[in-house]
Amino acid sequence: MRYLSTRGQAPAQTFSQILLGGLAPDGGLYLPERYPRFDAADLAAMRGMDYRQLAFAILSRLADDIPADDLRALIDRTYTTAAYSHGRSDSDFSQIAPVRRLEDGLYLLELSNGPTLAFKDMAMQLLGNLFEYALDRAGRDINILGATSGDTGSAAEYAMRGKHNVRVFMLSPVHGMTPFQQAQMYSLQDANIFNLAIEGVFDDCQDIVKAVSNDLEFKARWRIGAVNSINWARVAAQVIYYFKAYFAVTGANGEVVDFSVPSGNFGNVCAGHIARMMGLPVGRLIVATNENDVLDEFFRTGVYRPRKSAETLHTSSPSMDISKASNFERFIADLTGRDGARVAALWRAVDAGDSFDLKPTGLFDKVAEFGLLSGKSTHADRLDTLRMCWRRYATMIDTHTADGLKVGLEHRRSGVPLVCLETALPAKFEDTIREALGVRPERPAGLENLESLPRRVETLPADVARVKDYIARHADDRT
Ligand SMILES: *Cc1c(COP(=O)(O)O)cnc(C)c1O
After folding, report:
1. What is the spatial distance between Cα 356 and Cα 321, in angstroms, rounded to a whole number?
2. How much distance in Å is there from the Cα of 264 to the middle of ligand 1?
């Protein structure tokens, strides 16, 4: 399998070659040259598979330069019930990403039973093991630098903790995360995890990461890498659970299923699009946004108009508070039929702070063929949906999942199962749950006293030089 850049001007690479990198050298994102296709016989065989077997069936087609035995071992090490069922350990791998029936034809795909209680664990845990494996084979180590406003940072840290050839330097705003999210990260005592609380807001953290990454000499000297949402292996690992959910809610492979996906950087829903391109009978992919409606605007009007980061609103579904959707370019590349020159031209406008409009080009008409549509949800909608779900289905969901359920129901079709992706557990967003329901969400066992655990975090001013100095002093620490 060869991977090509969405902008068409970078040399072809293998899966392992793009695993540790970020953007392609031409500024684009990597995609497989052609998506592997599962035919009717393949799908029939996959229907009986457990999560690990599905993961292998899918990833062996995408990561075809990893020897099959190695890939199988990596998958088995990652997808354990201990990691994905709140510490329960047995060998019932159907408990990984279970589907909960809310009522006939309406389901919740539970993706938040991993170590940090958000769906990002589904892919990030695999990424941790893939990184360790690839670095070992290359005799290298890496210093991951990232900025987080919540879920990404903790998922990355819990995926990389204890890895002997990886260190994580994670910048987070001193204020801005929920107390639970802070405690999750700062209570990690692993020697290869460095929490840097920055005296500023999330954008300051992101600006520092950008400034450090743009210093190519520093980056090379200290072997700086990233695990951001454009990483192809993360997207690939997210494809697996669409297959899992499809088989769980259908009786035969001719049936069609709609999915509703709480969206920010377009990584999760992009994986659903790729599942369809690989042959899964996906009907509609419903893109749910919060008040930060960049994506909803596009799917309604054909105009993609990323906002300035200062325009990003702080909402009660904070993991979807984005000003531009970093994986969106992958979908547009498919929409143009992989016309690299056209994608490059569109993103020349985007990178210059501008917008583009696909309506006049006729391309927008093709969006419906790909089954994508959208909607948005506000704080008031979120509270209403949390209450509705609690009363009608006796199910407590989180604020992001509520956005997905609200928008999904607006587009529900009779006779077509609708699967709403659960992207976090309510315990992560206690204040809003309390506001809606008047009760404190339950926590999985072992996390009751998270906030009182000892913390390992360094507070630094929002100053690039200070952060670089910190990295230089710790980047060679033996772990
Ligand atoms: C990251 C995240 C999202 C958004 O997912 P994307 O892949 O960025 O679209 C939604 N909900 C939660 C809880 C998240 O952590």
Report:
1. 21
2. 6
